[in-house]
Amino acid sequence: MSSNLNISVRTSDLAILQGVLDDAGYDSTSSLADPKHYNIAVRLLFKLYRDGMTSPAALSIELSRHFGKTPLPSKSSAEFEKNRKLIQGVRSAVIVKSPTGA
Predict the structure, then answer these.
(1) d(Cα 89, Cα 51) in Å, to the nearest integer?
(2) CA–CA distance from 9 to each of 5, 38, 89 (Å)?
(3) What is the C-alpha to C-alpha distance for residues 97 and 100, in angstroms, rounded to an integer?
(4) CA torsion, points 59, 30, 34, 32, in degrees to nearest 10?
(5) Which of 29, 38, 43, 48 could make an SS bond with 53 (beta carbons 3.0 to 4.6 A apart)?
(6) Can you give the chain as a three-state secondary structure string?
(7) pTM of the entire structure?
């Protein structure tokens, strides 16, 4: 399996990708100090770019998530909780009214 990236990138897009790397702390000194992580970061950005993600903010977030720097939200969404309960067979609280209406 070849490790070469064979995609064409415009100079303006390359500048955006380089900016994302620089902002995340992957500059020329970090690439020499830890080339393995730098190469992984570059590959991830090129993959995301190739898949259509072109926003620098979105690329930065994904780069941070990949390397564990962005904490995941601590609270699950309501839809996630509903689906989790359905999968686990947990019933929602049901309010039962008495037949007398009291």
Answers:
(1) 37
(2) 11, 19, 49
(3) 8
(4) 130
(5) 48
(6) CCCCCCCCCCHHHHHHHHHHHHHCCCCHHHHHHCHHHHHHHHHHHHHHHHCCCCCHHHHHHHHHHHCCCCCCCCCCCHHHHHHHHHHHCCCCCCCCCCCCCC
(7) 0.54
Which residue's structure tokens are 């995301």? Answer: 48
Residue type, 64: S
Among the residue ranges 9-13, 47-51, 61-65, 91-95, the one predicted with the least confidence is 91-95
- The answer to whether 21 and 42 are in contact (CB under 8 A) is yes
Tokens, residue 48: 């995301």
pLDDT in tens, 4-56: 556 677 888 888 888 888 888 776 665 566 677 778 888 888 899 888 888 88
